[in-house]
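Cross-posting from the modeling subforum.

Setting up a comparison between two proteins and wanted a second pair of eyes on the formatting. Protein 1 (sequence, then structure tokens):
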Amino acid sequence: MAVFLLGFMGKAIAQKIEFNEYDLDNGLHVILHRDNSAPVVAVSVMYHVGSKNEDPARTGFAHFFEHLLFEGSDNIRRGEFMKLVSANGGQNNANTTFDRTYYYEVFPSNQLELGLWLESERMLHPVINETGVSIQREVVKEEKRQRVDNQPYARIINNVFSGVFAGTPYRWQPIGSMDHLNQAKLDEFTGFFKKFYVPNNAVLSISGDIDIEKTIALVKAYFGEIPKGATVSQQVVNVTPITNTIIDTAYDANIQLPAIVGAYQTPGMTSKDARALELLAGVLSNGASSRLNKKMIDEKKEALKVEALSLSLESAGAFIFYAIPNGYISLNTLLEDISSEIKELQEHLISEKDFEKLMNQAENKYVAANARNNDVAENLASAYTFFNRQTNHVNTALEEIRAMTREDIRNAARKYLNDHQRLVLYYLPGR
């Protein structure tokens, strides 16, 4: 009964997201979603530039610009950007991935025009000079120290991606190399900005308590005169398939307990198989009753932590699992247990009951992912940017999940999760 009710609630709440979209003459794509349920608006800009667009000798640029473009503009003094946001009842942030950079502000809806002005200033004439570059270098260095260098297990992903995506721009992390940032000259930073942070490589997505016609006029007023940039060609990342198991060892001075890690190459986010692999990861480790948690933590008490996840990027992906042993359990024992559960999924269909539970989890995740205006703005922009300019993918994504079958999950396990197709990493304390 509980499973049925959860499923019913998910279907009932997952309403279609209505939107208007159009292009300005300079190539900026604009998406507007009206939600008058609360006097709040999210203003966002997604630039189609991430770490994969960087020169291998100058990694970290996209993430660096996530910080640098808060430095100010010709009309905003250094340090005033965030003060203007907070003084007007708003909040703001930004984030960078391998494939895009995303900036947003959330304001009371009567401050929509301020949000548009701030983002147009960021796009039109930010201040990029030696002072700002020097300040943000130190900010990024401190972030790397906190989030990577001194964080237990944080460098696992570095080792995994450098092996699974060897020879491609996905092999380095968005935070990049501090040496590269130190070596870069000012004209390299300005060149990177002029190439990628142009209206024809961006999506302006607005969600919230807005009047559509008035917003269209404001968008034209603030963004219409920004010059169009040169066409940005997005490279397709071609990954060389793993055909024999790769075994590697890495050391981390921040940990006391080792971990076993496995990773497989998978397709990019637009693939149907990417949906199946997300569901497959849920079967293995989504919740206390999932297969790996139940077997390795509850029953055998071999692991303190075990997880499987599917990461989908624009051109490729990775299915990753890891486990931390309980006591003196060997890493190979954990590896054997995880491998046996994957083989079980390759050989047998999951039960109808487990499949229904999986569908309910996926639907509730979808609903939660569109709960706030900023979420909706980001999801609309992502749909346009990564799904062949099909913004309505924000609505059809759930339909794609509902169309999945137990056979799709089994077939994905058979196609991608074989021992000879994986990287196995022994992540050990020390050094």
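Protein 2 (same layout):
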Amino acid sequence: MKTIVGAEILDHDRFATWLPILQAWGACHVEFAQQVDDAAYWYTERSNVGVLAQAAWRSGRMALEEYQARKSRQHGHATKEWLGRCDLWISDAQGGELIEAKQEYLALRSRQAVFLANRILASAVKDASHTRNDLDSAACGIAFLPVYLRASCAPTAERLADDIVELISALRTSDAGMMAWSFPAETREYLGADGRNLIPGIILLGASAIV
């Protein structure tokens, strides 16, 4: 059984500088599985934001999680503003990027995988578009998609690997401008807390937001 890990930039003009972060993100999940004998990706959205922040630091960026930020939303001709929190800010010498994230489990064999992924990603992008920063920052939405299937329907290791590759390929047609995936060999047969679902790994999708 081999680890399935990778990253791909679909919108090079917008996300080319993200490739080292995405590669480090995949490696963080693999190393966590190897050293802790657990899956970091199956916990909460907040936990997955933390892993992405670690990946940013590892790739030479700076990262700040859950910081106070101004939010705004247009209501007709009026603009409503309030203080909230931004999930993550990543920066390097060239500038910063604010990130709002959403997490939802994605069924490995869902025929609506692209539709569902786009819906989750759009929600993250919408949140990012409402977030303002005192610094000059770009913004993007991130969808964390832990992948699952019923443990009672678990296929052979070869078939499971094929299904994972097929899902990754399908999500290349999503609205994402960047994507990454991490399916550590050590957690390919990982069971969730209730033992009913197999959770072999996670896929990340990202898309730009206008702030």
